[in-house]
Amino acid sequence: MTNKNYDIIIIGGGVVGCSIARELSKYDLKIALLEKEVELAFGVSKSNSGIIHPGTQAKSDSLKGRLCVEGNKLIRKIAKELGIDFQEVGELIVAFSEKDIAKLKAIKAEAQKLGVENMRIVGRRWLKVNEPNLSKDVVAALFIPSAGIISPYRMTYDLSENAAKNGVEIFTNNEVNDIVFKKKNSFEIKTAKRVFKTRYVVNAAGLFADKISGMVGINDFKITPRKGQEFLLDKKRENVVNHIIFPLPTKTSKGVLVIKTSDGNPMVGPTARDVDDKEDLSTTDDGLKEVLSSVKQMVPSINESDIIAYFSGLRPVAGDDFIIRHESSVPGFVNVAGIQSPGLTAAPAIAKMVCSVLQNNGLTLLRKKDFKRYRAQTAHLFKISKAKAKKLIKEHEGYGDIVCRCEMVSRKEIEEAIDRGATTLDGIKFRTRAQAGRCHGGFCTTRILKILSEKLNVPITSVTKRGKGSLIVKGKRA
Amino acid sequence: MKERELVIVGGGPAAMAAAISAHERGVRDILLLERDQFLGGILNQCIHTGFGLNYFKELLSGPEYAHRFIEKIKGIKDIEISLQSFVTHLNSDKELIYLRPGEMKEVRARAIIMATGCRERTREMIHVAGTRPAGIFSAGLAQKLINSEGLLPGQEIVVVGSGDIGLIMARRFTLEGAKVKAVIEIQKETKGLVRNVVQCLNDFNIPLYLSHKISRIYGKDRVEKVDVIAVDDNFNEVDNSKFEIECDTVLISAGLIPENELIEMAQVKMDKRTNTPISEKTNKTSIEGLFVCGNAFKIYDLVDSVTRDSIAAGEMAAEYLGYKK
Ligand SMILES: Cc1cc2nc3c(=O)[nH]c(=O)nc-3n(C[C@H](O)[C@H](O)[C@H](O)COP(=O)(O)OP(=O)(O)OC[C@H]3O[C@@H](n4cnc5c(N)ncnc54)[C@H](O)[C@@H]3O)c2cc1C
């Protein structure tokens, strides 16, 4: 229990909550972020396509369309400031018949209204040169150069780290169980560990935003999880496509895509199906079939045997659009809900919008003089020049000690990930890629368990995959 | 860049046999690079017996078999053994880059023998649907956790695949007091040695389901159960044959894949299906003077055969370097 008073409590440590935290940390405010999982980015933000969308998927009068285009612009600056690997690879929406070209034109016209720039329709000849593995049946495509890719979890971690550096207090393992609305700008937020007092609450709880909102009596929306299954291909297929490849969208989904990822592995997916269970992250044989048959139409050389990993993510859907609003019946409470796709892209713009929503509702925003805008980039040996790598290894011997052989991750990088907050095997994986390669940790898990146990000073038998009951081993040998 | 006559990558039985035999043929400048802190490779965690019957005419455990070679190779001063040395690059001019704690080194070799072993096929490669909780291990990882680290990965086990490592691990878990509920094999026959089926399963009453596969894994945090289903001759699922097994651990023993990403980087012609070099003769590759031996060349059943063929690799390298018989 504590009597400390916060100006703002953000609930949810996904990309949205962390973007808001970082944006608000520019101002002179007392801020805390509460997350129920053992680490940040363990919700929707860990399992998505990692695409920084250009803004061609939403209606021009929608909030998500506007925030997507704005987010796409903002992310470039943030990536530079925080040292996040953002790559503007561009996307192609492909058409299989002359009559589909009209649909491409319609998408282009709608996106132009949102301010998407430099789009053009490209024909067979261009495609043959620039996207040689594309099916010959593709007659034309809409080329949108401003689409990009990013690592969604690393983006979340880097934002949170910078926010913490600028004074935001981060509490993982703190599930919000209750919120008491005392009076205007006076809330008590209860977790199993303590009570937090605050003037403002920002609900960025992803799939559980309806539950959090319900705690203050706002029940006018419901989050329906829409499952997306994704399948990662071996790095050997890194160059199977040069752009992100989209089919023409359907009513409920952008369709199944061929995606480039910032880790190098191409990815195919996602499916889109509404499910009941907010924790159902299973993949299915049907999902795999659906994804393969769709992408093979666009890129025939993709095979089932290329797949080395798969996962599911759940889009937090609340109607067609994002819900971002101050609740006038509960003054001081802001809902940021229904942040489905393109929530990753829009996150920086959502953060700015939340700032002005708060400001419009009485919060004073005074810029900090000592805001630390930059974050030292973490090095990965194989993304820098040989000379630099050589120097780095000399300076820190641990860079020369490779732990994960498939992704070539060094002991130093793993130790650094732990210093930056990783406490679980998944936390290490998301930050460093160790265990994410072909052998899936077959070789390096033992070593990582030992490093975690040593650095965190806990027995190996209590190390988990991702917290709670996900213990890796069941005990010591008799 | 430093020049060496022969560089051997790996430190398991294949690498050691190749190094010793190349030396016997007269090669005097040999550098052996092993990424681990020890020689012996995967044998170190194979504490069961079954090694050496052909080569030594004795029944040895994995570490014992390795030990004989380690003793021998350590006595040869012309062989420089560099541990904790991880090769990151190889090109067709036989130039290598390797890392050690604190340094990055480059070396050009006149001949190279790659003895990099193999990795296990994963759950992902056999496309088992379901969730991704803790408690799913490759059999080799479980073996390492139990035998080398003294840990017990789980208490109620389902083994997927009846390869030798899977069978041996079924017995190992049973001996440690865990309950192995089933071994599931999609083929009509087991892939393991007959003696392992008898000694590891039958002797412990562990059920083996042939022509079955696991079709789904359940569990949010830790594995809770699996679906098992019968398959016909074409591996299609048989209607109404599905049943569940409750367990906290799934061991995947679905075969091995040679580790050849380095020679692939050096543009060696590869058979994409098997991940091995396309070759007319054992140990050879499309690049002259670049040899591959042991499980990296093909998956062997017995270490004795690895030793035999790796001795030949050492001789081939010596011959390539101009040493006559
Ligand atoms: C398959 C798929 C593909 C996608 N692809 C893209 C894409 O390519 N581009 C794009 O822009 N967007 C994409 N999205 C959308 C994007 O992933 C989401 O919009 C975004 O991650 C949402 O972030 P969030 O922070 O709102 O949610 P989350 O990451 O879920 O964060 C919410 C957090 O709140 C925590 N929480 C919940 N309840 C409580 C509580 N009671 N107390 C404390 N903490 C709590 C949760 O544990 C969680 O960590 C995709 C989504 C999916 C599912």
Distance between the termini of chain A: 41 Å
Total beta-strand segments of chain B:
22
CATH class of the largest domain in chain A reads: Alpha Beta
Tell me the number of structural domains of chain B. 2
What does this 3D model show about the protein?
- The complex is a heterodimer of chains A (478) and B (325).
- Chain A is of the alpha+beta class and 478 residues long.
- Chain A folds into 3 domains: 2-46 and 152-222 and 319-360, FAD/NAD(P)-binding domain (3-Layer(bba) Sandwich), CATH 3.50.50.60; 86-148 and 224-317, D-Amino Acid Oxidase, Chain A, domain 2 (2-Layer Sandwich); 381-462, Orthogonal Bundle (Arc Repressor Mutant, subunit A), CATH 1.10.10.1100.
- In chain A, 30% of the residues lie in helices and 21% in strands.
- In chain A, strands 1, 2, 8, 9, 10, 11, 18 and 19 form an 8-stranded mixed beta sheet that branches. In chain A, strands 12, 14, 15, 16 and 17 form a 5-stranded antiparallel beta sheet that branches. A 4-stranded mixed beta sheet of chain A has the order 5-6-4-13.
- In chain A, a hairpin with a 4-residue loop joins strand 20 and strand 21 (409-410).
- In chain A, helix 1 (15-24) packs across helix 8 (343-360), helix 2 crosses helix 8 and helix 10 crosses helix 12.
- The longest helix of chain A is centred in the N-terminal third of the chain and has 20 residues, at 63-82.
- Chain A is globular, with a radius of gyration of 22 Å.
- Chain B is an alpha/beta fold and 325 residues long.
- Chain B folds into 2 domains: 2-119 and 256-320, FAD/NAD(P)-binding domain; 122-252, FAD/NAD(P)-binding domain, CATH 3.50.50.60.
- Chain B has 7 helices and 22 strands.
- Chain B has helices spanning 13-24, 62-74, 139-148, 164-175, 194-201, 261-265, 303-320; strands at residues 2-9, 30-33, 49-51, 60-61, 79-82, 86-90, 95-100, 103-114, 118-120, 129-130, 136-138, 156-160, 179-184, 208-209, 212-218, 225-230, 243-246, 249-252, 256-258, 270-271, 276-277, 290-292.
- In chain B, the strands form 6 sheets. In chain B, strands 1, 2, 5, 6, 7, 8 and 22 form a 7-stranded mixed beta sheet that branches. In chain B, strands 11-18-12-13-14 form a 5-stranded parallel beta sheet.
- In chain B, helix 1 (13-24) runs parallel beside helix 2 (62-74), helix 1 runs parallel beside helix 7 (303-320) and helix 4 runs parallel beside helix 5 (194-201).
- The radius of gyration of chain B is 21 Å and the shape is elongated.
- The two termini of chain B are 31 Å apart.
- The model of chain B has no long low-confidence stretch (mean pLDDT 96).
- Chains A and B meet through helix 7, strand 17, helix 9 and helix 12 of A and strand 7, strand 10, helix 3 and strand 15 of B.
- The structure holds flavin-adenine dinucleotide.
